[in-house]
Amino acid sequence: MTPEAEEFLRRAIDLAATARKSGNPPFGSLLVGPDGTVVAEDHNTSITDNDISAHPEFKLAKWAARELDPETAAGTTMYTSCQPCGMCAGAIARSGLGRVVYALSGDQLDGLKPGGGFAPVPEEGPALHDEARVPVDGYYS
Length: 141
Hints:
- By secondary structure, the protein is α+β, with helices and mostly antiparallel strands.
- About 40% of the residues lie in helices and about 15% in strands.
- The protein has a 4-stranded mixed sheet, with helices on both faces.
- The longest helix is centred in the N-terminal third of the chain and has 19 residues, at about 5-20.
- InterPro entries: CMP_dCMP_dom (IPR002125), Cytidine_deaminase-like (IPR016193).
């Protein structure tokens, strides 16, 4: 890891501390453009915004999808204090960001939580394939 990357991760950790001080879960992220400058940064506001999706990674992915052209987005790096959760990872993939560098892994984070991570929600499926494919068939062509 380069010294510059370490400094970006330290900034993400500082943003996580800011989130915690404001009463939110301790997560922070920043987006660095292809030229190495910070183009956006944010911290978790899920408690103060009363919004379970207000993770910094999710907010930055939405910002990038809206504000950056695809080529610029593909050249960015998100530095984040913790490995993105499934929701955020999906948003990052759909936004076209280039890569993610994180400090804590999801497993390391779960080790810091009493009782570990969230309990999985039971899922069932696939079902009704022939019916479910009708509105989707041809959309991605």
